[in-house]
Write a structure and sequence with these properties.
With about 60 residues, the chain is mainly alpha-helical. It has one domain (about 1-60). About 70% of the residues lie in helices and about 0% in strands.
């Protein structure tokens, strides 16, 4: 999904180089989810169940426009 690619690319360009090992692990966990689930979290306003993933999703959303 193009919209997901744009949002994730912005986040990765800005944060990946300075991300902790834990944050990189959470990002890998998030990216393993199916696109429809990612879209609900990143574009649809839903939050993942886990607190750490929810925090990461909030950070990624801040890179949307």
């Amino acid at each position: 999904m193009k919209e997901l690619d744009i949002v994730l690319e912005r986040f990765v360009r800005a944060r990946l180089a300075v991300a902790s090992r834990a944050e990189r692990g959470l990002l890998a966990e998030l990216l393993a989810l199916p696109d429809p689930e990612l879209a609900r979290y990143l574009l649809g306003g839903e939050a993942p169940r886990g607190a750490q993933l929810a925090t990461l999703v909030t950070r990624i959303r801040s890179y949307v426009d």
